């Protein structure tokens, strides 16, 4: 009897957690109110360059993200003047849980749970009111090469991890990756080849009807790169050269 009661209570709690997650995700893409996105810098490699860059960060450095979302949602008839409000949080001293080296469904699920718990625990002191989306940006010295695509955005938990370079030169590129992972938290899917990084047409191309098809002039944000040729693509230098394509717009509920 007591076992049945414990199981019932657990199922009751899980139901409310699941319902709360569903409501949060539904509200995040109704586009009726501004989404509060908070960015937390992390010194990824412990370098002096990253520390100095983080000390100089200002919220204005991320204004391109707000401008990009406002511009693109307006193209799909959203009347919200400021669909995203970006704020800059205090630096985080802990590193996030590492992704499993040989991922499978169970390992990814366990990592996701650890990531959601970690994101709440390290920001609790500065977030009396929880933002809609948390993005942790791990800054690396530009002298230390890193695979910037090893970033991730979780719809469940509304949290993202971004790898970027601690340099003014890469500020625009960092914002492209932040915007990409932010849209993952809203339900957008990748539209590029994991093996090559090449955008997959037509949905991963900004101009799928362009003739000739290459070179493309812009990147579809979830395609991630500007396709210069069928086998060559580059990350755009800023969000001025990125768009939200129709399929991504459907995934985040901008259009039916």
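^ structure tokens above, recovered residues below v
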């Amino acid at each position: 009897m007591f076992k049945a009661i414990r199981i019932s209570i657990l199922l009751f709690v899980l139901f409310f957690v699941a319902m709360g997650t569903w409501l949060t995700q539904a509200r995040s893409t109704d586009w009726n109110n501004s989404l509060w996105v908070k960015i937390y810098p992390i010194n990824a490699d412990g370098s002096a360059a990253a520390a100095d860059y983080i000390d100089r960060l200002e919220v204005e450095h991320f204004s391109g993200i707000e401008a990009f979302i406002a511009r693109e949602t307006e193209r799909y008839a959203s009347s919200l003047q400021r669909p995203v409000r970006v704020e800059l949080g205090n630096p985080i001293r802990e590193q996030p849980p590492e992704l499993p080296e040989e991922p499978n469904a169970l390992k990814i699920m366990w990592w996701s749970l650890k990531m959601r718990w970690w994101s709440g625990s390290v920001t609790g002191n500065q977030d009396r009111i929880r933002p809609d989306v948390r993005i942790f940006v791990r800054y690396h010295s530009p002298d230390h090469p890193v695979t910037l695509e090893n970033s991730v955005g979780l719809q469940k938990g509304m949290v993202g991890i971004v790898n970027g370079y601690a340099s003014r030169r890469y500020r625009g590129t960092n914002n492209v990756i932040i915007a990409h992972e932010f849209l993952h938290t809203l339900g957008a899917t990748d539209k590029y080849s994991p093996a090559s990084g090449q955008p997959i047409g037509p949905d991963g191309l900004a101009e799928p009807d362009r003739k000739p098809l290459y070179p493309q002039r812009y990147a579809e944000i979830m395609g991630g790169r500007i396709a210069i040729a069928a086998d060559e693509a580059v990350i755009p230098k800023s969000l001025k050269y990125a768009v939200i394509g129709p399929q991504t717009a459907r995934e985040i509920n901008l259009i039916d």
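The first helix runs from residue 2 to 28.
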